[in-house]
Amino acid sequence: QMQLIQSGGGLAQAGGSLRLSCAASGNTYAIKQMAWFRQAPGKNRESVASIVWHNGNADYRNSVKDRFIISRDNAKNTVYLEMNNVQPEDAAVYYCNGRRQSLVYWGQGTQVTVSS
What we know:
The protein is mainly β. It has strands at residues 2-8, 10-13, 18-26, 31-39, 46-52, 58-60, 68-73, 78-83, 92-100, 103-106, 110-115. It is globular, with a radius of gyration of 13 Å. The N and C termini lie far apart (40 Å).
C-alpha cells in the first residue's frame, strides 16, 4: 500500500500564489505517475496536472498552463503544485493522485480558496 499525505493550500487573493505538496509513503516502489486533480462544488473531479515519475515529463489542463507548475522530488517521494496567478475559478478541493504499478491512490484533499 502507498499513502499520500497532502499539505499546503488555503486562502489566496486573486493573482496570488499557493503551493501544494503531496508526500508518498509506504510502498513507493515503481511509482509511474503522480498528478493533481481538483473538484469544485457541484462539478466533476478534473485533472489539473500530471508528471511522469521517472523522467519528469509534465502535462497540464489548458486553463492552468503557464500559471501552474508540477514538480517532483524523487528522493523525498514528493510531488508539488506551484499555483501562480490563481483565479476564482481555481477554487476547489485539490487531490493528489498516484499511480503505482496497476493501482491508483488518492490523497486526503486540501481546500484552495481564492478571494477576488
